[in-house]
Design goal:
alpha/beta, Rossmann fold, 8-stranded mixed beta sheet, 10 helices, globular, binds adenosine-5'-diphosphate, binds magnesium ion
Length: about 250
């Protein structure tokens, strides 16, 4: 199945920014699923509040409670680049108070994501911080690839260590856990060795582009972060559809 879960250990290393950058570069139809129990970012951020906030995981959780998860799924998506229908957004919750009810549909949502493969859709799931109370573990467990985002600082790597241990214990494909390093700090070169996990991407510290991804605006072409996102999206996509193993590891 074509599901990439992207998450962090602690802090805000750039999970949502990374998930959106990957989605915008994905070489096939894809759904960006905002599963972070702390809330979704793209509606108020990248889309700058220009779309009605009447769709997303909270509305889907209500549909799930009525036994209509699959029927109502596509109606809860937003086309990020209309009218293409190739990059779709399942908006996350606008208030963390909805996190518990969203978590209740976790197993069924994970199964639905797995089945989207049959319709030619991949999923990039922004799962946020793994230490949260209502983390959607079923999606992480079922994902073919799990990306842990870390910044190249000692605190970020220190917090990643215990998180990786729980991730390895829980993940359905622990051999497919990968690091995405945000190159802000001196430990980029040794992060993979320190954590014992393959590094699949090193993205530059690029506040201007990151701000446009998280707050809206035109993305500059050829900027290194966008180039790296494009490269990683193609790597992950190729890996997902080649027996689920993330290829081209650095
Ligand atoms: N590669 C980067 N370079 C510079 N700033 C970044 C980068 N990635 C993310 N940021 C910034 O860091 C902040 C947190 O990013 P976000 O993606 O929301 O983190 P998370 O989802 O992990 O909480 C945002 O202000 C974002 O613009
Ligand atoms: Mg986030």
């Amino acid at each position: 199945m074509g599901v990439v879960a992207i998450c962090s250990a602690k802090g805000s290393p750039g999970v949502s920014t990374g998930a959106l950058a990957l989605t915008l570069s994905w070489p096939a139809p894809v759904v960006l699923a905002e599963c972070d129990p702390a809330g979704g970012d793209a509606l108020p951020g990248y889309l700058a509040g220009q779309m009605p906030a009447d769709r997303g995981t909270a509305e889907l959780a209500v549909a799930h409670a009525r036994g209509r998860l699959r029927e109502d799924f596509f109606g809860n998506l937003i086309d990020l680049q209309p009218p293409g229908q190739r990059r779709l957004l399942l908006p996350g919750i606008s208030s963390p108070t909805s996190a518990g009810v969203v978590a209740q549909m976790g197993p069924d949502l994970a199964a639905l994501f797995g089945d989207l493969d049959g319709q030619g859709l991949d999923v990039v799931a922004d799962c946020g911080r793994l230490s949260a109370e209502h983390t959607l573990w079923p999606i992480i467990v079922a994902a073919s690839t799990v990306l842990l985002v870390v910044r190249a600082t000692l605190p970020s790597l220190a917090h990643a260590q215990p998180t990786l241990a729980s991730l390895e214990a829980a993940a359905g494909h622990p051999q497919n856990i990968r690091l995405l390093i945000i190159d802000q700090g001196p430990y980029t070169g040794e992060a993979g060795r320190r954590l014992g996990v393959p590094v699949v991407g090193v993205w530059p510290w690029a506040p201007r582009v990151a701000r446009r991804l998280s707050q809206g605006g035109v993305l500059p072409r050829g900027q290194r972060l966008i180039v790296e996102a494009h490269r990683l999206a193609h790597t992950l996509h190729a890996g997902l559809h080649r027996k689920g193993v993330a290829a081209d590891v650095r």
